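Technical note accompanying the year-one report. For the benefit of new consortium partners, we illustrate the data format agreed upon in the data management plan: each record pairs a sequence with a structure-token string. No post-processing was applied to the example shown here.
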Amino acid sequence: MSEGLVEVFGIIITFVMLTSISILAYFAAKKILLPIIARRIEGNRLKWDNYLLKRKVFEKSTGLIPLMVFYWGASHLGSLAQGFKLATSILMLMLIAKVVGCLLETIDDIYSTLEVSKEKPIKGFLQVIKITIYILVGISVIASLMGTNPFVLLSGIGAMAAVFSFIFKDTILGLVAGVLLSVNDMLRIGDWIEMPSYGANGDVLEISMNTVKVKNFDLTITTVPAYALISDSFKNWRGIQESGGRRIMRSVHIDVNSVKFCSPSDMKKFQNISLVSSFVQENIERMSQKGADAITNVGIYRAYIGEYLKNHPKIHREIFQIVRQLQPTDKGLPIEIYAFTNDIDWVNYENIQAEIFEHVMVSAKFFDLRLFQDPTGFDLKNINIVDKTDKNTKEN
């Protein structure tokens, strides 16, 4: 038998043995070592190591064991040793990059359990690190296959910067946007944002390098490009959570024909309303002086609403509030309430606002004021009845 055939048979036998040992090592690690590690992790009091199991860090790491065994034994493959070592080292490098990627995801999972993660998410930065590692590994693999120094290959990439910037435009824009959003504290996980151009109106679920995931109030999920939050405008409602107050800015419209100066009998009647009794008394004393201006019923009504808000248990007393007149229109005289509730929950806020305006609308009649609204079918029906009554009266 020639020396060549002996060498070939030797290589084949060695390859089969190495492959068998590698497979046995893999199954031993997966069936024996992994369960032991899992039991130790699940049995201790620590919580962070559970995320290592969740992201399958140990499971992916077991793939390194057969590769290391094969790499160690590849030197016995004669003339093919160098090629097998190169292939094995490339596979090991790629698998290590994958394991490191899983570790970065684990770090993000652990960090997300901390309260600070809502203010300073790191997912975008970790994704940048992961991409950088993958790029460096890719360059190393290409350099190994070409038999050149990786640094020589890196120097040539500078000439391809324009191509890379075009291919990875969204990634680069997302990276810059993610850094700006984090550094300027423009967005946090849990913030309520509103961005009509992208149909987003809800709570921020996730901030990654390229996208921001928003859970809308109709339970749909909207994905917004990170750079859109920098280039376009959006509304962040975080302020209402930090201040503990949510704004009410709504008006009732008064029929201007019901506005009048208050007579002495009106003042006496209004003085019996507890919330404005002192205000009315002050104006009675003021009006007794020569040349003093009379007060209107709408002026007392505004004072009444102001006192009502000051005494309302659900109105925030430490934030500015005002009851004011707006420009009269063909819809009447708007009386606007500008105040803040001390309960920011949406349902509670709407109930408080409704309660206030129900009271404001009903109380207008106590000041001889009429609320304005466009004529309805009921109003037109009453007009017809009045016209018919007048016509019958004239005929009789």
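Partners are asked to follow this layout when depositing records. The beta strands are 192-195, 200-207, 211-216, 221-225, 235-236, 246-254, 322-325, 333-341.
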